[in-house]
Each structure stands twice: as C-alpha cells, then as structure tokens.
Fold:
Amino acid sequence: MNVDNPWFLFALLGSLGLFHLELAADFLNLSRLPGADSAGTQDQKQEIERLVGYNTAVTKAGIVRSSISLGLLLAFWFCGGFGWLDAWTRSSGWDAAGTGVLLVAVLGAVQSVLALPFDVWDTFGIEARFGFNRSTPATFIADHVKGLVLSAVIGLPVVWLVVWFFATQPLAALYAWLSVVAAGVLMSWLAPRLIMPWFLKFEPLREGPLRDAILAMARRLEFPVSEVSVVDGSRRSSKANAFFAGFGRNKRIAIFDTLVSAHPADEIVAVLAHEIGHFKRRHVVWLMLAGFAQMAVIFVLLHVALRSPSLFVAFGVREMSPGMGLVLCMIIFRPLSTLLDVGQLALSRRFEFEADAFAADATGTASSLAGALKKLSHDQLSHPSPHPFYVRLHLSHPPVAERLRALESRGAPDETRA
Ligand SMILES: [Zn+2]
Structure:
C-alpha cells in the first residue's frame, strides 16, 4: 500500500467515496417509493406494487453491477494488474500511440464482456418481467456488436490522436481538446444520418391528421422540417419516446411508433413542441458547450498528471507512458467528472422546464403536454418522487410531479380534456 502517495489515496478514496455516495443516493431514492397502504382500491394497490417492484429491481441490479465492478477494479489494481498489462502491451513493440490504443482496446473489450451478463439480466430479466422488453436475443446481440464496432471505429482513432499528442506535443492538452471537440461536432452531425439508421428503421409518417398537425405546428414555430419519421422503437422496448435530429435546414423529426400508438395526436404534437423548444432555445448547443468545458478541465488535469511519476507508481506501473496515463486518469478523475456532471445535469433540468413552457406557449395549452407527461411516467413506471439527492446526482430530467406543477402554475389549465 502506497499510503504516502497522494495519487494512490486520491484514487482509492475517490473510487470508494463515489461508490458510497451513489449507494446512499440509491437507498434514499428507494425510501421515497410509495407504500402499498397509500392505495385505495385493489387496482391502485397492484399498480403501486408493480411500480415499487420495478424501481427496486432496477436499483438492486445497478448496485450489484457497481459493487462487482469496484471489486474487480480493486482486485486488478492490488494484484499488480496494471503493471502486468503495461508490460504486455509494451511487448507489442509499437510506438506510444499504438501501445496506448492497444491498451484502451483491450480494456474496453474486457469491460464489455464483463458487462454482458448484467446487460442480459437488465433486458431479459428485469425489463422482460415488467413487460417492457420487446428485444429478441438476435436484436440484442446485433445491437451489442454494432455498439462495439462503432466504439472501435470512432473511439480508437480519437484515442490514437490524443495519445499521440501527449507523446509528442508540448501543447498536447490544447490539441487533444480541440480534436475531441471536432469529433463531438462531427458525431452530432453523423449520428442522425449514419448511426441511428443503423439501429432504428425510419419510415415516413402516414399522411393524415397527425402529420398535418405536426407540420402545421412546425410551420407556426418557423421550424423547417424536411421529414417526419416513425421509428420502430417497439422492436426493443414498449417504452415511448420522441426526438428530432439534424442541424441547419434539414431537420428531421422522429417519433417512436410506441408514442404514436399510445398517445392522442394533441399529446404527440405537444411532446414535439417541447423538442422544438430545446432547439429554438439553443439548449442542445449549450449542453454541448458545457460538455466541452468539462472536457477542457479533464485535459488540463491529464497534462499535470502525466508529468507525475508517482501517478504510475500508485498503480504499480514501472514506466511512464501517455497511454497508461490516460487510462489511470480515467480511474482517478471519474469521481471528479461525476461532480462536474452535477452542474451539467442541473443545467439540463432547467432546460427541461424551459422546453415545457415553450411547448405550452406553442400549443396554446399546458394540458396536452401535462397529459403526455403523466401517461409517459405512468407507463414507464417512473419513480413518482425521486429523492432530491438522487435527482442532483443522476437525473437530466426533473421529476414529473415538478414539471406538472410548473405547467399548472402557468395560469388556468385548459380543462377540456381532464
Ligand atoms: Zn426535453
């Protein structure tokens, strides 16, 4: 044990601290689930039991997953795994950037294999038991393979570039940050065009009142829509969703088929007005900038850490190298980025309220969106009143009850479809 090595202490206490912080948030959150005695009728009682059962199962699975992953990290670390891995990747004889990519690729592959049983349990155990899962084993496997291919094709070149900068350039942190920013912008452009169609099937929404209502709303809001598509979300899950994608003049609205089948037209239009609100208020851009700012902090810390031999000593690695440094920094800074995320999540929750208000103005009533939110949250067995600590730590969306209150406080709600 290197208890006099500050990196060692920081990494160990940080990992243990983050684990316990998340554990506390989980338990606090579970303690706020409604009790069965708060139900009046037998039906309500059954509904509450389902809600409590689902939230408890998801939380428990998450705790088991993070306990095992922390245990494996500590075991690997204290058994000299990082030193061994470093020596093994160096034996490839590749240069610093190549060795760094090999290291990240091996760790990434091992991580996804280890995560697989948990992913299987989430999908075919929990989601299936509560009637959400629609994914077949074939779709599940195909999704995982595609995910791995994508991270290899997109992620590894970025890793190569970042490690190469840190191996050769004095201003590496700046260059690395600029290339990650460029990759992020490129990805947001590529995602709706190349990546999403690889996972989801987009089909034009049928001519009819729903399509007319969506296009009329988009025209009223001066939001140039080139395409309204329905996406086959039902192939994976019964949970409903909507999103829109695309920059510039080519905006593409996509609605999950599960949303179309479960909600009346006015609610779907309200949900889309909310999405357009995100765009009109530039929320997407602001969140992206916040992410880039956070990345700048991490790269500056990486710059400092890579010059510190004791960082490597703390993990039992004999020689300094930018690739291994990058991996060690990811372990060390994970608790820190969780704290930085708290700010970004708060911003995101504020944007949700703004987009809700935008949708209420755009559709002339708060009740359509309120109806959609109530139904979505009910159908997805969302926690009705998550603990404020859990909200701050994890949630990008405010609790539905708060969103409904904010919508109601915008003046007399339209009672026509109560
Ligand atoms: Zn939103």
About this structure: The mean pLDDT is 91. The two ends are 64 Å apart (CA to CA). The longest strand covers residues 225-231.
